[in-house]
Amino acid sequence: MPEGWQWDQTLFRGSAAYYDQGRLPYAPRYAARLAGELGQHGQGRLLDVGCGPGTVTLALAPYFAEAVGVDPDPDMLVEARRRAEGLGVRNASWTEARAEDLPAGLGLFRVVLFAQSFHWTDRERVAATAFEMIEPSGFFVHMSDLKEPPANPLPLPHPAPPFEGIAALVRTYLGAVRRAGQGVLRHGTQSGERAIVEGAGFEGYQRLVVPSGAVVERSADDIVAWVFSRSDSAPHLYGERLDEFERDLRALLREVSPDGVFAEQLPGTEIWYWRKPPE
Questions:
Q1: Where is the Methyltransferase domain (predicted)?
Q2: Which domain holds residue 22?
Q3: How far is CA 26 from CA 14, 22, 168, 188, in A?
Q4: N or C: which end of the chain has fewer CB within 10 A?
Q5: For 116-214, where are the E strands, in sequence order?
Q6: What confidence tens digit (pLDDT) does each residue in 212-257 have?
Q7: pTM score over 0.85
Q8: CA–CA dist 159, 262 (Å, integer)
Q9: What is the pLDDT of residues 74-118, one digit of tens each?
Q10: What's the CA gap between 66 and 60, in Å, rounded?
Q11: Using an 8 Å Cβ cutoff, are 113 and 272 in contact?
């Protein structure tokens, strides 16, 4: 868990409705690549901890007999159920709980996965619990966007979103220290996941990078949704100034792209995984 910060229920309050539109997708075919690496062909159970609106849960569900998404934000789970119904995914279920509430009577799993969520948890405690919830020879998976910039960035057909300007605008409204729920992240989120996971007993570390490289168009509405999908700029943080902030944000976007069209190169997807030793 980030130093000096305590989790509370408002961390992503109001963000669920913006998540699907605002967040960039993971690399194409990442789910098939990961399933192939783990030898998944429709068997076993998947647990996605901090599943949000079910983005990764639903992509991986076809490779498992059952997929379970866990998240403490009830609005995220409403979105997950809606998306599952729309996609016709019938082997996924959803549980409202924090990672620290596990095992929560959920049973054993072939794979326990954290997609950009592990850093919000009491990591040593949660990794130890995950070890007990994974069947022998099963896997612990950590997944995120690849932070390294592309080696050969592609030319963009439209302006890139003004991320530095957006960050400055957010600071103008919310202060210089990054907000997170009712608290702040004075020291950012922590790293060192590999040592923590291996300290819990997992072994055989492997790193899988799934490249993307695709360039996607983004509308002004998409960029606004991205801002509101983030924990450090979630809608509730602005209080009565939410409409004012959105007006200023849209004005900034119009300055950069008067026609409201932007472009981004999708990041690759970085996946780390470890195996629980066989009995």
A1: 47-138
A2: 16-275
A3: 22, 13, 26, 23
A4: C
A5: 134-145, 178-180, 183-185, 203-210
A6: 878 999 999 999 999 999 999 999 999 999 999 999 999 999 999 9
A7: yes
A8: 5
A9: 999 999 999 999 999 999 999 999 999 999 999 999 999 999 999
A10: 10
A11: no
Burial of residue 100 (CB within 10 Å: 0-12, 13-18, 19+) is: middle
Q: Is the pLDDT of residue 73 over 80?
A: yes
Number of residues in the chain: 279
Q: Is residue 125 a part of any domain in this protein?
A: yes
**DSSP string of 129-143, one letter each residue:** HHHHHEEEEEEEEEE
* pLDDT tens sequence across 131-172: 999 999 999 999 999 988 777 788 999 999 999 999 999 999
How does residue 22 score in pLDDT terms, banded at 50, 70 and 90? very high
Q: Is residue 255 part of a domain?
A: yes
Domain holding 37: CATH number? 3.40.50.150
Q: For the sheet with 134-145, list strands across it.
A: 92-96, 66-71, 45-49, 109-115, 134-145, 269-275, 203-210
| Domains held by the chain: number | 1
Cα–Cα dist 274/270, whole Å: 14
What is the rounded distance in angstroms from the CA atom of residue 125 to the CA atom of residue 111? 18
Residue written as token pair 């605008």: 169
Residue 3 token pair: 């130093």
Q: Find all residues with CB under 8 Å of 111, minimum gap 6, and list them.
A: 38, 40, 44, 45, 46, 47, 64, 134, 138, 139, 140, 141
Mean pLDDT of 117-134: 96
Q: How many angstroms separate the CA atoms of 47 and 44, rounded?
A: 10
The count of other CB atoms within 10 Å of the CB of residue 136 is: 10
Q: Which tokens is 73 given?
A: 């934000």
- 3-state secondary structure string, 98-117? CHHHCCCCCCCEEEEEEECC
270 found inside a domain: yes
